[in-house]
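Q: I have two molecules that I believe assemble together. Could you output structure tokens for the complex as a whole instead of separate predictions?
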Amino acid sequence: MRKKTAVVILAVIIIISLTVLSFSGVSINKRNAESDKIAVIYVDGVIIGGRGQSSLLGEYGGTDYIIKQLHAARDDRSVKAILLRINSPGGSAPASQEVGEEIKKVRAAGKIVVTSMGDVAASGGYWLAACSDKIYANPSTLTGSIGVYMPYTNWEELYKKIGVRQEKIKSGPHKDIMSPERSMTDEERAIIQTMVDDMYNQFVEIVAEGRKMDKAKVRQLADGRIYTGNQAKSLGLVDELGNMYDAIDGTIELAGIKGKPEIKEYGKNNPWAMLLGANDKLEILNKLFLKPIENELPITAPLAIPEKW
Amino acid sequence: MGTILDDIYDVIFSPRTALREIAARRELLSACIVFLLSVFIPMWAVFLGLQMGEKSNSLGFIMVFQVIGSIAVWVVGTAIWHLCAELLGGRGSAVGLMTALGFSHFPRIFIVPLWVLATLMPAGISPFFIGISGFIILVWTLSLEVLAISGAYDISRTKAVIVFLAPVLLVIAAVVGLIFMAGSALIQLPLG
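A: Yes, here they are, computed for all two components at once.
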């Protein structure tokens, strides 16, 4: 009987402990999480919509992943501000737009969003930056490239030389617009130009709204050229010159954080992700050895992508 | 039900005798109940404790890994330790060992109240408290597993430790052997 009583008491202690854990909301991490945090979200490489690579332990690349990180930072009450570390030549207009809109929503939810530009934050990269509260850039950062283009290659002459002739049965006259085996008609060129102009106007509006500039002034700057961080600062496209740590200091000040906040980096690669996240061994080797040596980042990327860029 | 409660008490306070008797009785159903409670309850507590502060992508993976790993170690471990024990002269049954091993996981359940205690401690101390108490529970569980082997095959504790470590030692020996073989093969390859 004594034995049974002892075990029953033990069972009661365990049930009470489980109840405390379930309903009181007390946890070791939660108490650690009470200190103010600044979330750092990295936007690296060409901005492309979609999921990117999925693996057993998470997702990598693609705007869906960036948006998930923004949502996680927004929902974490201990995160007082978000620092976007952008190192991107741009990407597609819809992808940049959807991330930009989410940045605006995060700001509307009460979180400060500050941008720190790395080597490059041009075109779509600048689109995201324009949606944030404050922009920091290094004096030699390449930024700007406010504009849109759709790349199109005409292989017609080559196809004639090698004897390739493509036949098509079309549902409409413009279904094969921008096909590489023929020249565009004037009407098609006008259609594409209208689309590019529409996207350009949307980009101009974002910059004008984000930077609180007159649209005419933005149009004057937005002829597609790139600027250094220094030039961008003098033109009002950037707020402050400084590196990521200056941006963190600025974020602390802007968010009114007292004391030293914890920096919480989102999307960091861990050893499990390195082992299970990459598609194959070559990708791991590429990540480990080749990426630091070669710099394949283009200066700017097209903001409208009709096919795989 | 009464027997399970008595067995649990005895496993905590007089483990050597208790595990020998449990192995002899071979009540596998009781062992299954104790084992599953010992795995799921602490896991649930750890999950509750971790998920509220910080959502982690790998948390679910770790939990699933923990359950599958524990069951695999229980079942596969029984088979391997049974073979090792018989090779070292032990006489007993695999079912008896499996039953005793099921009960030997019980100390894991103490993680639950200890976790709650840790949450009440100052932020700087609680991780150390969890770490130390987790280590003590691990050592306790491993000691009970050794006693389970000793009791199930009626062998000395020294022999039981050898049986317990034999699979690990065999794996290490196999890895070292493979490294030597791979090294020899590489030396044979022509350069250039």
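A: One point stands out. The CA atoms of residues 19 and 148 of chain B lie 5 Å apart.
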